[in-house]
Amino acid sequence: MTRLDSDRATERRVYRGDRLSARTNREHTVDNLSTEQRSACMARIRSHSTSPERLVRRLVFGLGYRYRLRSKDVPGKPDLVFRSRKKVIFVHGCFWHKHIGCKRASNPKSRQAYWGPKLARNVARDRTVRQALARKGWSSFVVWECQCGSQNLIRKLQTFLDS
Question: Does residue 135 register a pLDDT over 90?
Answer without folding.
Answer: yes
